[in-house]
UniProtKB/TrEMBL annotation:
Domain (Cas12f1-like TNB) ranges: 21-89
MF (Gene Ontology): DNA binding
UniProt-recorded name of the protein: Transposase
Source organism superkingdom: Bacteria
The keyword DNA-binding appears for this protein: yes
Keywords tagged on the record: DNA-binding
Length: 106
């Protein structure tokens, strides 16, 4: 049975997806250690795409995945959802490292 077929099964799909992410995370942690780098893990529930990377305003309307671009109602900065999320994740990781509370993978 192919992975694509198993993902269609509601009883199996969650476990398969979680196993895939766990494997991916393990590989990234291994590579980071190999190259002498630190892997910082940001919380799953961190609202990376909802936060304005310019002023920090949290826009709950951005939860919908169909919304690819948005303008911050607070500072009026225009955001591409993915670019904005990546900036917020980087900033959160730096903050976790600086605060000494980083959830390091190894």
């Amino acid at each position: 049975m192919s992975v694509a077929s198993m993902l269609k099964n509601n009883k199996l799909s969650k476990a398969i997806c979680e196993a895939s992410w766990a494997t991916f995370k393990a590989m990234i942690a291994y590579k980071a250690k190999w190259y002498g780098k630190q892997l910082v893990v940001v919380a799953k529930n961190f609202p990376s795409s909802q936060l304005c990377s310019h002023c920090g305003y949290q826009n709950k309307d951005v939860k919908h995945l169909t919304l690819r671009e948005w303008q911050c109602p607070n500072c009026h900065t225009r955001h591409d959802r993915d670019v904005n999320a990546s900036i917020n994740i980087k900033n959160e990781a730096v903050w976790l490292l600086t605060a000494g509370t980083a959830g390091l993978a190894y």
